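Supplementary Note 3. Input sequence used for the single-chain structure prediction.
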Amino acid sequence: MSGELDNSLRIYRPDFEFIYESIPEGKRVLDIGCGDGTLLAKLKTKNIFGLGIEKNEKEIYKCIEKGVMVHHDDIENGLDHLLEKSFDYVVLNHSVQETKKPGEIIKRVLQIGKKVIITFPNFGHWEIRLMVLFTGRTPVTKLLPYTWDLTPNLHFLSVKDFESYLKKEKIKVEKSVFFFRV
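The predicted structure, written as discrete structure tokens, is reproduced below.
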């Protein structure tokens, strides 16, 4: 794939588009919780060196089919072997809320990457709060497609929670963006 996007990579996801546009050509990228490898495959069109970490075996097979290098491991213990500043960018795209100790993961990726991109579903979004208020149930949406008993999410953070954590830990934020997708 030299500059052309394969049709399987033409799905529109604002988070993927933002990440794609944020990472310059030729960089080293680690995608933690890379899923089926679609983001890394898309980034390959920018001549990046990409590596994914994924624990779901079915998703790993999809990565391999897309030609994405992937390491089979759990985020919780799959970062210890990585050297400090060994990647230009580390991506945690909708995966930090699925970890047991997100604070430790964030601190570790800040060591591994020169820059870090973190995205997560905003559980404090007004539409999510209204769904809980009016239905009395955990919301199931396009972005949050799991019932409470099957969700991989261990932490239900909001943008304000995340900003408070960053301030407490004195973590510098270069840019914040918000996508509307419930």
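The chain has a mean pLDDT of 89. The two ends are 32 Å apart (CA to CA).
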